[in-house]
């Protein structure tokens, strides 16, 4: 867990920012963002896996198509904010965050602008 947390912290730091590791005893792993992200990722993974399992077993219905949704059911301001700030802009944000370039038939370059995702999702 410590190795994964350190890797996450290093990868999430801008290249021009110096990184300092304090390697003394008594450091809690819960102070870093890496541990927090991995914990929540595991929680969400479990929730999604359980949802898919229950959906396959008929407990939950399939999600409806977007074109069949009745947006008039959204009455609270918070519901509309969630829709416009996160759901509606997700595809555009992902398109701008990841650029796939074809240098040749043998090589492809993927540029992931994680700062775009982080800034857009307001972490």
Q: Could you characterize the architecture of this molecule?
A:
With 123 residues, the chain is mainly alpha-helical. The protein folds into two domains: 1-63, no CATH class; 65-123, no CATH class. It is built from five helices and two strands. It has helices spanning 2-11, 33-56, 77-87, 90-97, 114-120, and strands at residues 98-102, 108-112. A two-stranded antiparallel sheet has the order 1-2. Helix 1 packs across helix 2 (33-56). The longest helix has 24 residues, at 33-56. It is extended, with a radius of gyration of 20 Å. The two termini are 22 Å apart. Mean pLDDT is 75; it is low at 118-123.
Shape: extended
Please identify the structural class as seen in this structure: mainly alpha
> What is the number of E strands?
2
Helix segment tally: 5
The largest pleated sheet is described as: 2 strands, antiparallel
Residues in β-strands, percent: 5-15%
Query: What's the overall average pLDDT, rounded?
Result: 75
Oligomerization category of the chains in this entry: single chain
Percent of residues in helical segments? 40-55%
- How many domains would you count in the coordinates? 2
Uncertain residue ranges: 118-123
Q: In sequence order, what are the helices and strands, one letter per element?
A: HHHHEEH
**Strand order across the largest sheet:** 1-2
Rg on CA atoms, Å: 20 Å
GO molecular function: tRNA binding
InterPro entries: DALRD3
């Amino acid at each position: 867990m410590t190795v994964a947390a350190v890797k996450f912290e290093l990868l999430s730091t801008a290249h021009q920012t110096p990184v300092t590791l304090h390697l003394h005893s008594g450091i809690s792993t819960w102070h870093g963002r890496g541990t927090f992200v991995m914990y929540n990722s595991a929680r969400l993974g479990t929730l999604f896996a359980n949802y898919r399992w229950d959906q396959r077993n008929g407990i939950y219905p399939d999600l409806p198509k977007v074109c069949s949704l009745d947006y008039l059911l959204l009455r609270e301001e918070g519901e509309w904010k969630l829709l416009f700030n996160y759901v509606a802009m997700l595809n555009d944000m992902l398109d701008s965050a990841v650029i796939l370039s074809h240098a040749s038939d043998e090589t492809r370059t993927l540029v992931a602008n994680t700062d775009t995702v982080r800034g857009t999702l307001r972490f």
